[in-house]
Amino acid sequence: MNPTPPSALTTTPATTADIPALVSFVNSVYRGDSSKQGWTTEADLLDGSRIDAASLAEMLQAQGAVLLMARTEAGELVGSVYLQQQAETMYLGMLSVNPTLQGTGIGKYLLHTATDYARQQECRRLKITVISVRHELLAWYERHGYRRTGEELPFHENPAFGTPRQALTLLVLEKPL
């Protein structure tokens, strides 16, 4: 697969018709052997799927929520990001980039797209949660303007998001807009 420059991508909101493709895509990014081709894998931390169809459908139906999909000119899904407005804060989650294309600027493109979307919704900050032991991912977000708030949350106890192999916590980071 040839790297696609982010300038050649189009971004559209997901619909319920996109759920099967998104479930497959997100799970390939985060878990399993295919995820190990990239640097954002959680395969060594969690067993099971990252998302299932019912959970994704529920996320898409949440008030103020959108999942943006990045596609190449040929229509190939190469990235996605979930956003949910919470008053003046936009929660950013499940940032996903095809493992074979990680490091080509697609993640950065999605962060910029999410930031623009949050500003259009008149949000004052972006908020994310990152697994505390994902040091390289925390550093990546910090290089993009996110700062740790000091808040920690327990990892989800929902098997639809995977089963931890060790005790995990989520760190909350924010970026002012």
TrEMBL record:
It holds the Pfam family Acetyltransf_10. It comes from the Bacteria. InterPro entries: Acyl_CoA_acyltransferase (IPR016181), Bact_Acetyltransf (IPR050832), GNAT_dom (IPR000182). SUPFAM superfamilies: Acyl-CoA N-acyltransferases (Nat). CDD domains: NAT_SF (cd04301). Gene3D superfamilies: 3.40.630.30. Residues 9-177 form the N-acetyltransferase domain. It comes from Hymenobacter lucidus. The keyword Acyltransferase applies. This is GNAT family N-acetyltransferase. Keywords: Acyltransferase, Transferase.
